[in-house]
Amino acid sequence: MKLRIAAGLVCAGLSASAFAQGSVTLYGIVDTGIEYVSHANAAGDSVVRMPGITGEMPSRWGVRGSEGLGGGWSTIFALESGFNMRGGTLNQGGRLFGRQAWVGMSSPYGSLTFGRQYTMTFWAIADADLLGPDIYGGTASFDQYLPSSRSDNTIVYKGSYGGFTLGATWSFGRDSAGTGNSPGQGTCAGPVPGSSQSCREWSAMLRYDRNGYGVAAAYDEQRGGPGAAANLYDGTPTFALTNPGDTDVRIQLNGYGHVGALRIGGGWLGRRVDTVSAETPNVHSDQFYLTAQYPVTAAFIVDGGVYRIVNSDHDTRGTIAALRTTYQLSKRSAVYLQGAYLWNSAKAAYTVSQGGGGTTPAPGAGQLGIMAGIRHSF
C-alpha cells in the first residue's frame, strides 16, 4: 500500500509538472538607415532623411507565450510594440502595444483569440508580396492599410486542415483608443451605443499551401462611423466615412511558388469604397503585383517587384519598380541597399516611400527612392 501511495504521488507530481509547462519569448527587430527621395514635395525638392516607420522591416519588440493544458489545448498570448528608431517614440498612434495585444486558446480545432489583432488581409498577402512591409513595398506604398491591417475589440479564429487554412475576424469597434487605427482611416472609436454597425470590421480568408506553393483569397470590410475616413493615397483629399452604411472593402486573390531557388509571388487586390451619401462619390481601385526573390548565395539575397494601381474614378494610376539586396552578416544581423522608382499618371500623386510621410510629389511627377540600412533581430 505504501509503495502504491508513493507511486501515485510521483505520478501526480509528474502530471502536474507536465500540465503546467509553458514558455515565454522576448523578441524584436531594430531596423533603420538613411533614405534619399527625389521630388519629395510639390516644388520638386529632394530630401535625405532617416525614415520613421520602416526600413526593410518595421522596428518592434514583443513578448509571446503559451502554456500547455493537455490534450492538444493551450493558452496563448502576444504583446507587440512598434517604435520609431529615428526618435525612439511609439508608432501606431502612441499605443504601448499597438502592433498586437491578444490572448486566447489554441486547440486541435484551431485558435480563438481576443484583443487587438491583424485582420485576414495581412495573413492572406504575407507570402505573395515578397517585399511586404518594406519602405518600398509597392502594395503598401499604394495602400498603407495593407501592412497595418489591424483592429481593436477583435475576435479572431484561424484553423488549418490538410493544407487549407480558414480564418475570420470580427471587430466590435476597430479603434477603441481613438488615436487612428491605421494611416488614412481617421479615428472611428467604437463600439458605438445604439449603432452596432458603426466602426465595425470583419474579414475572412481561405488559403491553401502545399510543398512550397500556395494560393489565398480574402475579404475585409470596414464600416463607417464617427471620425472615420478614407484615403486613396493618390494625392486626392481624404474624405469622411461617418455613416454606418459606408463601407471600405478590400478583396484579394494571390499566390506564390518556386522555380528552383527562385521564389515568385503575385496577385490582385481590389479596393471598393462605397458611401451612402450622394455627395460623396464611390471610389474603386485595382492593384496588381509580381514579386520575386533569389538567393545568390546563402548570405546574399536579391529580391524585387513591379506594382501597378489603377483608380479610374480619380483618373489616377501609378507604377512602382523596386529592387532590394540584403547581405546577412550573421543569423540575426544584416545590411541592405534598396531602391525603387515610381511613375505617376498626370493626375496622380502617389509616393514611393512609406517612411513616415512628408514625401508627396506634385501630380504627375516621378519619384526615386534609395535607402541603405542595417537590421538586427533578437
UniProtKB/TrEMBL annotation:
It is a multi-pass membrane protein. Gene3D superfamilies: Porin. It holds the Pfam family Porin_4. Keywords: Cell outer membrane, Ion transport, Membrane, Porin, Signal, Transmembrane, Transmembrane beta strand, Transport. Residues 10-345 form the Porin domain. Homotrimer. This is Porin. It comes from Paraburkholderia guartelaensis.
